[in-house]
Amino acid sequence: MQFIDPHIHMQARTTEDYEALAAAGVVAVLEPAFWVGQPRTNVGAFQHYYSSLVGWERFRASQFGIRHYCMMGLNSKEANNAELAEAVLSELLPRYLGKEGVVAVGEIGFDDITAQEEKVYRAQLEMAKEAELPVCVHTPHRNKKHGTLRSMEIALEHGIDPARVVIDHNNEETVKDVLDRGFWAAFTIYPRTKMGNERMVAIAQAYGSHHVIVDSSADWGVSDPLAVPKTARLMLERGVPEAQVHEICYANALAVYGSSGEIHERDWQSTTKIDQRELFEGNSVLRGQEPRVNAGRDHPKELVIE
Asked: What is the CATH class of 13-263?
């Protein structure tokens, strides 16, 4: 099987992770813009970060046979710095939302569910409408159900089609509300928190595959970049039909983010050419190692379910 990880922070990962993803059958990754472990203090820091998402990271993924796409947005944690938020919204996002490979506005939404976060969320929903892009919503870790319901209410107030909005970081408490309202319900799989493999299998068995998505996040904390293929394997072992696993771990992400016009299955259907002699602004991923040339993708390997 082939997989898409539609929410993975590859800037937090090593090139070894890219090799493992390719070997496990991951053909494409989508990286939402988020915070980097500590607050940024000026607009230039955001500009450098956004530029790296459409530049170096896209190149780095290609060196291992993986297509990299990204989302642009001002994350909820840093939205509370009102002065900086206004500068990012006015000076940067209108420029970067139109860049090649940008498939959505995200991840945006709530963290502490403040009035300032709501203001920034609403502004970015309007940007998504203007740019005709889908939206990836970050739901809060605290007061999750309230934050999730409020996120959907606001999106509907702005006239956003629920079929173009992915509500992420769901759990058993929120999934029914999200699906009943016609939004996409995404689940971030972590090794020991949020949503694990076993719980995700139970969700799939209870709700099926319609509008259900699995991703890894794989951020700067304790996380697993192979969460999507591992969860797919466990679903198959527990009797979830292969067609449903394909939808949850590949086709659904392609459907919603494909509405951007920036991600197409044909991008990776043809033989993937790998030429590690290529450089990005004079830099390579190799650090003196022998380059792989025209090697294609690695074959999937056995995965350990944890």
From this structure: alpha beta
